[in-house]
Write a structure and sequence with these properties.
This protein is an alpha/beta fold. It has twelve helices and 15 strands. The chain is globular. The strands form four sheets. It has a seven-stranded mixed sheet with strand order 2-8-7-6-5-3-4, with helices on both faces. Strands 11-12-15-14 form a four-stranded antiparallel sheet. Helix 3 runs parallel beside helix 9 and helix 10 packs parallel to helix 12. Pyridoxal-5'-phosphate (PLP) binds next to helix 4.
């Protein structure tokens, strides 16, 4: 019996453990100080009333013989997939129900999709990056090439035609940077993928934070993307489902490689290894798309976005370079005076009693950058913004 030795090539990631350790050490030494955590990557507002109502009703249905449900369809119930189809149609993206796969979240799908690709493919990921894209490919032993996201390109790297890659990861709005690609930039990626016969894995987990109509919320708003892209989306940040678990993946029927439909392969993979998302959760997810549900989740998203604006305002006033904070819950800024991400972490904790996430934890280009999130309470954000203003 041999293990998958690729797992031994995984780098230990102590980022959040180290943040937690330093934070608790500081709290122990300074018990009277109120520390504000702007490092949270999780939502804090509860589920909206429409979702709660739909899930409560679904639980009651499950308790009656006439309406009880056992295993559901592998791709998700039609009632939810129809809502997702209509949601895309509002942005002029026409989908077939067969192209929509409901799952327990974007993390699972963005990882599991690799099952249907050869381990010989080369992979391109931006640096800094959401670490899941890297680690899941290391587990399979694929070769990873990094493209630089930095101040020069405002953390929105574009394709380098001299480099070939088979699998390309894009995340917009981006975690950790909050940067968002425009149509022209995404078109360059789609053209590059088509020229290279490559596939784009497009993570749109934060699309609901885009309120600027001039920005694309789906890769399928770009012509040609249905021949080279898969999109991963999630109810986690849109509707506070991080603990409930639900997401969806769009695999176009036109997407073929070596004469094989990726949609068919993914269906085969899911129907073999996955038994669907619970009926109760899918009812809750469908309620997000009702007009009341949409208004309620928008209210929560706007709350987070207003928080982001308050933090961004301080950085603008202090003339500190940053991206994000507008169409994203993340604010990514340059540490002042050229200090390292961890030096700035210590400085901010000791002088402002604010916790954030050192950018170096997301890749080498994250060094000397820092991530703050807007998922906190308004009063905390206001206090943190005041403290930031004093120390920056
Ligand atoms: N993709 C990105 C870029 C994320 O930041 C996250 C969560 O933080 C996920 C996917 C995971 O989403 P889910 O909760 O749907 O698994």
């Amino acid at each position: 019996m041999k293990i998958n030795s690729n797992y031994l090539n995984l780098k230990d990631n102590y980022l959040f453990a180290d943040v937690a350790k330093k934070s608790s050490e500081f709290a122990e030494k300074n018990p009277t100080v109120k520390v504000i955590n702007l490092g949270i990557g999780d939502v804090t507002l509860p589920l909206c009333p429409e979702v709660v109502k739909a899930m409560q009703y679904a639980v009651l249905e499950m308790g009656k013989k006439e309406t009880f449900k056992g295993y559901g369809p592998y791709q998700g119930y039609d009632f939810l997939r129809s809502e997702i189809k209509n949601y895309y149609a509002r942005r002029n993206v026409e989908l077939d129900l067969d192209e929509i796969f409901v799952s327990d979240g974007a993390k699972s799908d963005v990882s599991n999709i690799l099952d249907v690709f050869s381990k010989e493919n080369s992979v391109m990921v931006p640096d800094p990056v959401y670490p899941v894209y890297v680690d899941t490919n290391v587990m399979d032993g694929r070769k990873i090439q990094y493209i630089n996201a930095n101040e020069e390109n405002d953390f929105l790297p574009l394709p380098d035609k001299s480099i070939h890659s088979d699998i390309i990861y894009l995340c917009s709005p981006n975690n950790p940077t909050g940067a968002v690609y425009n149509y022209k930039q995404l078109k360059q990626w789609v053209d590059y993928a088509l020229d290279n016969k490559a596939i784009i894995l497009f993570d749109s987990a934060y699309e609901a934070f885009i309120s600027d109509d001039s920005l694309p919320r789906s890769i399928f708003e770009i012509e040609g993307a249905n021949k080279c892209a898969i999109e991963f989306c999630s109810f986690s940040k849109t509707a506070g489902f991080t603990g409930v678990r639900c997401g969806y993946t769009i695999v176009p029927t036109e997407l073929t490689f070596e004469g094989n439909s990726i949609n068919n392969l993914w269906f085969r993979r899911q129907s073999t290894k996955f038994n669907g998302v619970s009926y109760v959760v899918q009812r809750g997810a469908a309620a997000v798309f009702s007009s009341e549900g949409m208004n309620q989740v928008k209210e929560n998203i706007n709350y987070y976005k207003e928080n982001a604006k308050l933090i961004a305002k301080v950085l603008t006033e202090r003339k500190i370079y940053f991206v994000g904070g507008k169409n994203s819950p993340y604010i990514w800024f340059k540490c002042p005076d050229g200090i390292t991400s961890w030096e700035f972490f210590d400085f901010l904790l000791e002088k402002a009693y604010v916790i954030g996430t050192p950018g170096s934890g997301f890749g080498k280009n994250g060094e000397s950058f820092f991530r703050l999130t807007s998922f906190g309470e308004r009063t905390d954000i206001l206090n943190a913004a005041g403290r930031l203003k004093n120390v920056l």
